[in-house]
Amino acid sequence: MNTFLHRRAFLAGSAALAAGPAFAATFPDRTLKLVVPFPPGAGTDATARIVAQKLGEVLRQTVVVDNIAGANGLIGMKAVAKAAPDGYTLGVAVPGPMTIAQFMFPDMQYDPEADFVPVIKINEARIGLVVAKHIEADTLQDLIRLIREKPGKINAGNATVGSVHHLIAEMFRIQEKLDFILVNYKGGAGALNDLIGGHIDFMFIGLSTVTSQVKNGTLKALMVAGDSRSSILPDVPCSRELGIAGLIGAQWQGIVVPKGTPPQVVEVLHAALLQALRSPDVREKLEAIGTEATAGSADEFAAFLQAERKRWGPVIKTANIKVE
């Protein structure tokens, strides 16, 4: 990442937070609301509560987490888009409602590109390719060779239609010109149980979910999607190392505010969130739930969102992914 951009964003935001114009002295002067577009107890909710608590400490105001669930996150993000653009309503952005749904739902009631101002990327959880113990593949090339030797016979589990895990599996299929069967599940638990039980052969899944199974030999991790290895399983090579540089994708979360929020207010929020995410206790708590804090500038987050849309749009179209 660009250290200069991080430092410049931090210094500019800190100035706004501590000694900027008049708005910095008055904002915020009341409770803020952080909208989570999923139910309490989900992974996104856990991240939001960690961040909300520290953000409240930095701003010296209460930050309330408001769970507005439904329609795979679309209802909650619609509520954020329609909220007053005054900085007091923030939303937790995740891949589905912000970079994937627009290519699958023709009648979305908000525009993920035009209706929000990106503030900061909070974290990401790395995704890996794991195979069942019965599969005779110790490397990614072994698995690719096996799939090509048995076209249409190898099964891959898919926890959720339209998820990042699903799209990476389809990207893998497209880029490597492979013929395997994708078995859809209604959630990751069922897919993982079947993978451990040997009923399916491989799947793309969050590394933190299968760390113990990989370490004890129940499952084999062949690859981490992305440009670098993961600190969770550092011995597992990344896709770039293995010659599949374009196979990138992770489960991530960020903060957005409604379009029209004053830039000075966005700067204050960014500076406070950056300070929160750089605190050791927040980083430790995020790592404990299987994610890594990322931070960065608002411009970097905006560019990241655009890159995600450019990556997933063609995959959804080529694979003809439909909402079930």
Question: What is the element layout, followed by pairings?
Answer:
Layout: H1 3-19, H2 22-26, E1 32-36, H3 43-59, E2 63-67, H4 74-82, E3 89-93, H5 95-100, E4 116-132, H6 140-149, E5 155-158, H7 164-176, E6 181-184, H8 188-196, E7 202-206, H9 207-215, E8 219-224, E9 250-258, H10 263-277, H11 280-288, E10 292-293, H12 298-319
Parallel strand pairs: 1-2, 1-3, 5-6, 5-7
Antiparallel strand pairs: 3-9, 4-7, 4-8, 4-9, 4-10
Structural summary, described in words:
- By secondary structure, this protein is α/β, with parallel strands linked by helices.
- The protein has two domains: 193 residues, 3-Layer(aba) Sandwich (D-Maltodextrin-Binding Protein, domain 2), CATH 3.40.190; 99 residues, D-Maltodextrin-Binding Protein, domain 2, CATH 3.40.190.
- Strands 1, 2, 3, 4, 5, 6, 7, 8, 9 and 10 form a ten-stranded mixed β-sheet that branches.
- α1 packs across α10, α3 packs across α10 and α7 crosses α12.
| Low-confidence spans | 1-20
Discrete helix count: 12
Q: If you average the pLDDT, what whole number results?
A: 92
CATH superfamily of the largest domain: Bordetella uptake gene, domain 1
Residues in helix, %: 40-55%
Distance between the termini: 38 Å
User: Mind describing the biggest β-sheet?
Assistant: 10 strands, mixed
CATH architecture level-2 label of the largest domain: 3-Layer(aba) Sandwich
Domain unit count: 2
Shape: globular
CATH-defined fold name of the largest domain = D-Maltodextrin-Binding Protein, domain 2
Estimate what percentage of residues fall within beta strands. Answer: 15-25%
The run of helices and strands is: HHEHEHEHEHEHEHEHEEHHEH
Number of strands: 10
Level-1 CATH class name of the largest domain: Alpha Beta
Helix- and strand-based class? Answer: alpha/beta
Computed Rg? 20 Å
